[in-house]
TrEMBL record:
The lineage of its organism: Bacteria, Bacillati, Bacillota, Bacilli, Bacillales. Residues 13-178 form the N-acetyltransferase domain. It comes from the Bacteria. This is Acetyltransferase. It comes from Metabacillus indicus (Bacillus indicus). Pfam families: Acetyltransf_3. PROSITE patterns: GNAT (PS51186).
Amino acid sequence: MAENSSIWQGELVRLRPVQPSDWVKFHKDGMDSEIARLNDAVYGPRSEEGTRRWTEAETEKGWNGDSVRLSIENAAGEFAGSISTDKCDPRNGTFSYGISIFREYWRKGYAGDAIRIVLRYFFEELRYQKANAHVYSYNEASISLHRNLGFQEEGRMRNMIYTKGSYHDLLLFGITREEYKKISEPLRL
């Protein structure tokens, strides 16, 4: 990407607010059962109008304390996925996040870049101390990504996820501000 003049811009992507027009890709993504299993769970089908309304609500919601959903855009300006923060606890300095990259943008480094942007913001601007990520044991790509980003596997909750006729474990990953500082590049604004 262009020179990094915004904290919301990484090497490969930038994070921006959800726009009403994002509904089209959100809808297509929501109809892919494999992606649904990797992100959360397979739900019943949603109408186009339902997805439009959900996207408009996300657009209007914006920031709720430190919780937010942001769209991920690549250097070409293409909407490539989203990242959201939740379970934000400023008192204890902990937060969690979830990320989803649309299938056609897998394996391009966008997820890692978006996560680094969120970590940078929460650790360097909001004084958070720790980020947590929950990863399903069958999501090998996400497990590898989090390990490569410097996250530590902190626990395993057995048989927590039921999908496709089987139970699976939920892996708990975490990274502290100090661990992040050891592996991050200096802040470039």
